[in-house]
Amino acid sequence: MANIEDVAKLANVSIATVSRVLNNKGKYSEKTKIKVLKAIEELNYKPSSQAKHLAKVKYGFKIGVLISSRIKNILEKKRNEYGEMDFYSTVLKGIYDGANENKAEIILMTFEEFINKKKECDGILVLGSDKIPDYILNCNIHKVLVDNYIVGKKINAIISNGFDGAYYVVDKMIKRNYKRIIHIHGPLEFYGFRRRFEGYELAMKQNNLLPITYEVAETQESINYIIDLILAKKPEVVFTSNDPIAIMVLNALKSKNVKVPENVQIIGFDDIVFSASTEPSLSTVKVFKYEMGNVALERVIELINGKNLHPYVTSLFTEFIERKSTKGV
Amino acid sequence: MANIEDVAKLANVSIATVSRVLNNKGKYSEKTKIKVLKAIEELNYKPSSQAKHLAKVKYGFKIGVLISSRIKNILEKKRNEYGEMDFYSTVLKGIYDGANENKAEIILMTFEEFINKKKECDGILVLGSDKIPDYILNCNIHKVLVDNYIVGKKINAIISNGFDGAYYVVDKMIKRNYKRIIHIHGPLEFYGFRRRFEGYELAMKQNNLLPITYEVAETQESINYIIDLILAKKPEVVFTSNDPIAIMVLNALKSKNVKVPENVQIIGFDDIVFSASTEPSLSTVKVFKYEMGNVALERVIELINGKNLHPYVTSLFTEFIERKSTKGV
DNA sequence: TTGTACGCGTTATCAA
DNA sequence: TTGATAACGCGTACAA
């Protein structure tokens, strides 16, 4: 591969001039431009994105991290029932660590604040699955959605692979010879819940088992309401859309004097902080929150440097964390 | 962020020694090791993956690209009915171009040949969705699957986002006020077909339309067999799992004297070479083959450099290419 | 308008 | 066993 020096030599100019033409910065004559472009053409020269980054990192990047007012409240400790504070602060830690390594400055702001700070940003990360205003979605800044994916919009996104995690853990339970595995899920219009549902469904069907599913709201009442229906199915394992639901199921079973994991095993999804300290502690599928932030930051820097510009969704694999709400092997 | 020089200064050694400890290469005393590790700890030092790459690129990388014997045959022009030769050669072009930019040497080999060439590779790309032998899946080399995703195995993979593409194009047709949109698909045990199916299904349901689907084998007979059933539904649009099926539908409609796009519109998926030259030319959803190869190559280089090691699936967005088998706006 | 020289972080080589 | 240094490819401040 030719480098900038080869181009400079062939065009009979300095590398600085090549760079100027390439990036359309500074002054250069039309004649020089043509010489340089010809040399680039001839050598089939393509700047190395890695070296580009290394050279640019010196001057730093400015990355806006956009959150809804709701998430801002959560981060300010106003509420944390569902472990959301932990979730977002862990993702943010991944973002900040990545920023640190790339000499990037993070500007944390709400959706509204972005309107005035737009010009300062080389790129933005939009955090969380709250509704994103159109002026953000349509602005022409490099952007990456974090823990959110908008179907049909072709926006770069980082999410966790709920389909794969659900399939993996359900298939694992089936291999342990459990057959009556029930899935309790939140509303399927949410992409995340739906993908976990589909993973569960596929694992069951591929093993010739009948999927049994219940939709609930994420409230204790909603769970209590159907707990008898669930128990009537004599489930060996209850797999839920997320940890908060799993914990509510656990509560409901306790109040019915059903022993966990002896009589019913429970598996959640997310691995929120509380899951380690329930009684018994909750087996769950871990979402890699830190990595999610880290990968998102790296992705937006890539985009700023003009690398891998074609948009795509990044789905991080999960991991089964086995605690005491399942029986183990 | 601390750099290697800061660490060297604090530990009172040279940067070379820091590097030696870090990478466990060359000789150094236990005492030195402890000093260095302490300094690294204290400064929270993390080597920059970018700079690492730049330093490494000098010595080059060796990337194995693994293909099945079947794909090898296709590439050697033994057959090309389904545009597969074009598909794989375009992906390969993306791989080679990426390799070029990263000073990587590509070693193209079959699954069997890999057994003996394993030691030469810094990383491997496994191309295509033919069954991959376990000795490849289980070998401890950095690997990336290209146009393949194995559920539940947590292996890095690059695929095209069939779900999103299908949703996008079906939703677009619905917005053009067509309601009778039929989906003809291949066997749903293939992940790719299933995702396209799910995208179709979601777009229909979200618009309160009833999904109508037919499963077929990828043969002309299989299509001819159901063409009357399909026509009985008076479809305005027929959306298929891929271009080969779309072309067969086109043939079947022709032999029934059904005008395309006047009476029935057809949309394929993939954008294989032949799609531009059918009569009428085929509207389709383009899969970004070149980018798929390119991103895959970049990903494996990343892994070799120890960057973003947590595994994930990369799903490239698609694009609707409108030709003459649909009516346009 | 153009060129020189430096810096980014790492590692191999060679010398000590 | 350790240190000094060049090299990887690019962008830009500064000098010319």
From TrEMBL, chains A, B:
Domain (HTH lacI-type) ranges: 2-56
Coiled-coil residues: none
CDD domains (alphabetical): HTH_LacI (cd01392), PBP1_LacI_sugar_binding-like (cd06267)
DNA-binding keyword on record: yes
One of the Pfam families matching this protein, by short name: LacI
Keywords in alphabetical order: DNA-binding, Transcription, Transcription regulation
Top-level taxon of the source organism: Bacteria
A GO term for molecular function: DNA binding
Protein name: LacI family DNA-binding transcriptional regulator
